[in-house]
Amino acid sequence: MTTRPGPHARLTGGLLLWYGVLGGAVAWGVHVFAAWGLDELACAAGSDHVAAVPLWQAVGLAVVIPGLFTVGSLLVAALVWRRTGRAGEEDRPFGRSRMLAVVGVWSNLLFLTIIVLGGVAVLVLPPCQG
Amino acid sequence: MSTTTTPPPGVSAQDLARLAEHWAERPTLRGWFSTVDHKKIGRRYLVTAGFFFVLAGLSALVMRTQLARPEAGVVSPQEYNQLFSMHGTAMIFLFATPMLFGFGNFLVPLMIGARDMAFPRLNAFGYWVFLFAGLFMWASLPFGAAPNNGWFAYAPLSEEQHNPGLHMDVYALGLLFLGISTTAASINFIVTALKLRAPGMSLNRVPLFVWAIVATAFMVIFALPALNADNAMLFLDRRFGTHFFDPSAGGNVLLWQHLFWIFGHPDVYIIVMPALGIVSAVLPAFTRRGVVGYPLIVLSIVSISIISFGVWVHHMFATGLPQLSYSFFSAASTIITIPSGIQIFAWLATMLLGRLVLRVPLLYVIGFVVTFVLGGFTGAMFAVTAFDQQVTDSYFVVAHFHYVLIGGAVFPMLAGIYYWLPKITGRMYHERLGRWAFWLVFAGMHVTFFPMHLYGLFGMPRRVYTYRSEPGWDGWNLVSTVGSYLLAVGLLLVLVGVVHALRRGRPAPPDPWEGDSLEWTTASPPEPYNFPVQPRVHSLHPAWDERTADSVGAGATADRILSDGRRTLITSELDAHPERAVQMPESTLMPLVLAGALLIFFTSMLLAWYPVAAVAALAVVATIAVWLWPPRRPDEELGVAR
Amino acid sequence: MSDHGGVVAAATGAEALSTELPVGRSAGWWGMVMFVATEATLFACLLGSYFYLRFQYGPTWPPDGIETPELLTPLVMTAVLLPSSLPVVWAERGIRQGQRWRLRSGLAATIVLGVTFLALEAAEYAETLKRFTMTTDVYGSLFYLITGFHGLHVLVGLTMLGWLLAASLRDGSFGSHRHERVRNAAIYWHFVDLVWVAILFTVYLSPRL
Fold it and tell me: Are the beta carbons of B335 and A102 separated by less than 8 Å?
């Protein structure tokens, strides 16, 4: 807390905070949209391949990439939580960031769980079974 | 600042007089129609939504009378269809959301220490549109032209060739009309909460009710367009021969369902979320402590409002899509119970750790917990696809969502009515009368709806106007009917209680409950300017906080009194640093005129008077143009380069 | 922990992580952004419906011997509409410095471009209506609903800009301290422009993929 960060660092920090808070939510949105869309459209077209990739692997990618993005978001939220913990209670922006970090940690865990459950389904169910 | 001895300390009598002058609205008829005061508008929302609730409730009573015994003939099948459709549509769209928005309108500015909503005129406009849309839809019932397709209006039954007449046109146009109001109110809530919070109210000090209203507003912003698109296509299909839901020309009936539930599932939370916010607002006063786990409740509010967009397919598990694509939605439907559970356990912990003050609002909160948990439990059962396919379209579903909606929305609303009645009316309610009403409502609700689980499992389908005598159906149906009358008597007693308070109630002090949020730091009912001094907030429970109290007392400063005009403070988005004071708009008839022009537009569209509709559309444009026309200002004030 | 310097350390310090972002926007800005957000969702629903119905329909799209849409007119329309945002930006920057002439001429230029767009759309309709209408089949319904709804938005945007131009022709309306209406109308116009790109892709380009 000795020097004030420059404008560039502040912008990055502010964006990082929101990545930590909302990253999981965004990743989950992409995951549902991509996985559902791929599965539904490929099956409706009567194919179990997307381009040359087997459908289950394509859907699997729509699980793994958002999952990793969520893990990153979780780590950032945890980092914010640790960094703002050492500040005094009286400092309003720190208190606000810390609360958002708590929200971020837990919501990322929730979204990660949903994405992982979807991944389990990809491993267990044949992609086009009605 | 000169500190005179007149109360409240910190504000001079001249300041108070100037504030009163700037914020006063004339008590004339014109003043009544042109008001932009969020408290008056909030009250009107509450009363109007209550009126539509009575109409929808009476529809339900007629239906229960019809179903009291097998093969009764109280109403015809056609009338029954209209009754259950209007009951559902009105309860969801004309009662639940507007009622909670009424609480929001009255309370959000008070809770965040502001003097009005961010857009007071838009607020008035939203109310008039709500009123007109509600009347537009209800007016169809006496003509026998009310919606008759259930509240979710599935295609293809809602299409012209299967359902001729104006019924579903009323539905489609009515909801499009109403959507204008809901969207306007939502934008207003979001901006108000972002920009008008009192200095110092950073995001970690925002009352949970305000979080809930803002999350609800965000859900409306992103969910309602799906319903609007759906209804626009339905109307085009019915009236102008398009084929969106017509399989014979390439359309698809499932499109209606997808769009409807993309809206409809978030809508469940749009209804329940602000009600849960009421619970979080009521509890601190009656447990004498803050709600346990504030960040976790914020988490729950935020994550529910997001996840609710990813569960829509679970309303359609019975429609035959690939199982894998279900499972992504099943996962979301299962996990969304966790944040809901977090809230319930946080409230239970609050009650456990606090010192309970068993007054009527708390009774309703306890009734809410019991009922809502039962409804949530049957809801979690639907996440099991196999079970869902078994009970879809049976009375089990009816039982489930009445537990969720009465438990999750009506009980908290009733808690809120008793809790804030002193603030809204300046009068206290009659405690014993309130208790009687509570027990009748609680018993009536469970006697009505618990048996529906049973005869639902016994196979009774919903939406049948009558039934043959079947084992397990007759007796339980009669029990349900008796329960519904009990419920009606209980709700009547609530109304009697409110009227009694208005007529005979003893005057309420500013803070009868020793509540924790800012609305209790000002007069009951509040002055038109809400706060003589806008507070500086120092904690999550500003009304229990010495320093916040001091900021409106001895520590009052001119930049928060703002008595030189109709002004309120604008603060920064996250941390509520003061940015500047802005001038608030005066009262005007424009919102009413605009809403009236829209009413003419939608009515003439319904009746196919298209030239009139075109003229009304022009009137809408002209009204907006006049409304927003910039006032003439001198060049120095504008800042013009020469 | 604080033994390494650099941008990363600065950006992940407690202070940087507590930067207030977003900050300092006006109430009107937020209101317009929220309105645009809900409108954008509406278009997303319409375009989603297009793809849903298309993929549910089967392999031949457009159906019933309707040809895939001509590209020339829509590309010209794109070339007219997308640049129309620039004069608005220029006009807005102008009035921020109190230069009314820039506001007036910028708005006028954009209005000309917007009207040209609508005229081109009308010409295109005159052509397509000979081949299929809204009631021919679901393709026709989607085509006219989506393009017509967007056209309506262009008309609304033009009304806003025309109204601004009328107000700016009178002295005493806008200046460097009062230009919120200009900015809000500009946001709406940019949105109408951007949505057109999504429509161009969905309605005109995607049937060729």
Answer: no
